[in-house]
Amino acid sequence: MDDEIDLRHIAGSLIRHKGLLTKFAYGSLLLSVIYALFQKQVWQGEFQIVLESSDQGYNSLVSQSLSSNPLLANFIGANKQQSLQTEVKILKSPSVLKPVFDFVKQKKSKKGIDYTGLSYSDWVKGSLRIYLEGNTPVLNITYKDTDKTMIIPVMNLISNTYQEYSGRDRERGLTQGITYLEKQSVAMREQSNKSMRQAQTFALNNGLGLQDGMPSTTTSINSVQFNREKAQNKVNKLEQQLNFAKTSTDDSVYIAPQLKANSELYSKLQSLESELADKSALFKPSDQSIKTLKRKISSLKTYLNRQTTGLIQGEFDTTKAELASLTRPTKILLQHRELVRNALRDEKTLNDLETKLQILKLDKARQANPWELISTPTLLDNPVAPRRKRIVALGFLGGLILGSLTTILLDRRTGLIFNIDEFKNQLPYPLLKHFSIKTKDNWDMIINLLAQGPLKIDKSSSIAIIPVGDFPPQQINEFSMKLKQALKGGEIIVSKDLMQTRSCSKQLLVTSPEIATKTEVRELVQQLTIQGKPVSGWVYIDSEKVL
């Protein structure tokens, strides 16, 4: 391909134009030396600061206390979790470093240096470097200036600005939070008092306690609802006991534990049953005393069951009447429950607001520690720029590269073919031999081999030697004479006229570097194709000035 360039081609171009390459290299070297000598020295200062305050633990406690109200936490900045990279972006912004920039402009103006056209962003890019130390919260700050006396004052100002910034947002956020909570507390106190008065008034008007209508887990023993539920439970229990008492027979006795009036009769029954057991061990069942005891026991059981049923019935009726007196309409209970719930909710909200207000006031009263400065602003002993050796080296290297590109472009513009590889890409015929000027003494033997091989003809035939490009006449004549001697007969025609060479039995192309262009070679190949006569091959004769 025409566009392919290998290292040998480049090396050949550099050698052919070494004079031009030398001029580029030394010219660039001279300019870089002059440029380096006229550059002003640039001095640099640096220091380090830790972006995390030493009271982070306390701040986390404040954040936890405000976790129930994330909007308030965000409002005062207690819930702020921005990344360190974002923090660095803020620290580079004009909102933080604009005073430092104004200070530099003022000092430069006093020294007669015009800084009016310098923008803040250009100043930061050209003079400041602010970056994190790996994945740590340690911030590195470096400042560069051609005025050595400006380094330390500017670095101290940056340090003080960052120290002030570390507590500025906290102070502003706390002040705003306290103001907000004070206003909300006043409004909520009025609302809480109002809702509590409404609940108490409704309870008094309807004979209810404060806890009536509320869930059972919060019910007070003094509430109407609690007493009603207690009476209902007692009615259910008495009803069950009454059913058991009514179904009792003379053979069994139902004992109600709460009935103290029957305690003497129960004792008498136990005494008679004990006496019966004793006599049954001594007498037969038909004995008169045994029969008498059984009648007494049966009669006493009947009496006990009737009396127990009557007592339970009386207690049951009394409890039902008490339950009826404690019953309130569902609508009244639900309305009362809603009023009480609103009152309790407003009271809890008021308590939360007042607690948070006290926390913020205490936090504001506490003196927060600024960011820790772990190294003081320091001026480096030696200037960091210009790096004269580096400038000179880069200038010299740039000259070599520019000169090399120029030589390559010059060669490509001429269109000449400079080496055998390029001819191989252009000529679709076999290369018979590469002749070198340095081995000219061996030409006779090689030409004899060609004459006996691919170029062999009889005495009545002829060979056409076609020069490719502006071949030197002396070399082509010398080559044709040696070939004629090797053939020992036959005719040799040296010509570029293909109409003349087409009558020959064989055609041989002869070429050399820097004598033919790619265009000429392509046109020759096209003409040979149209001519229709076979081409035996081509030979390449190099010159001493080509690698």
In short:
This protein has 547 residues and is α/β, with parallel strands linked by helices. The chain contains 18 helices and 9 strands.
Protein architecture, described:
By secondary structure, the protein is an alpha/beta fold. 60% of the residues lie in helices and 10% in strands. It contains 18 helices and 9 strands. The strands form 2 sheets. It has a 5-stranded parallel beta sheet with strand order 5-9-8-6-7, with helices on one face. It has a 4-stranded antiparallel beta sheet with strand order 2-3-1-4. α2 (18-38) packs antiparallel against α13 and α8 (151-205) runs antiparallel to α12. The longest helix is centred in the N-terminal third of the chain and has 55 residues, at 151-205.
Helix content: 55-70%
Cα distance, first to last residue? 21 Å
What is the CA-based Rg, rounded?
A: 59 Å
What is the H/E string? Answer: HHEHHHHHEEHHHHHEHHEHEHEHEHE
Major sheet characteristics: 5 strands, parallel
Give me the secondary-structure category: alpha/beta
How many strands? Answer: 9
Taken as a percent bin, the fraction of beta residues is 5-15%
Major beta sheet, strand line-up: 5-9-8-6-7
Tally of helical runs: 18
Structural shape: elongated
pLDDT below 50 for ≥5 consecutive residues: which ranges?
54-61, 76-81, 212-222
Which key terms come to mind for this protein?
elongated, alpha/beta, 4-stranded antiparallel β-sheet, 547 residues
Question: How is the secondary structure organized here?
Answer:
Blueprint lengths: L6 H10 L1 H21 L4 E8 L5 H10 L4 H7 L7 H9 L1 H17 L9 H8 E5 L5 E8 L5 H55 L18 H23 L16 H18 L7 H39 L3 H36 L6 E8 L8 H27 L5 H7 L4 E5 L7 H10 L9 E6 L5 H15 L3 E4 L3 H4 L4 E6 L6 H14 L5 E5 L6
Parallel strand pairs: 5-9, 6-7, 6-8, 8-9
Antiparallel strand pairs: 1-3, 1-4, 2-3
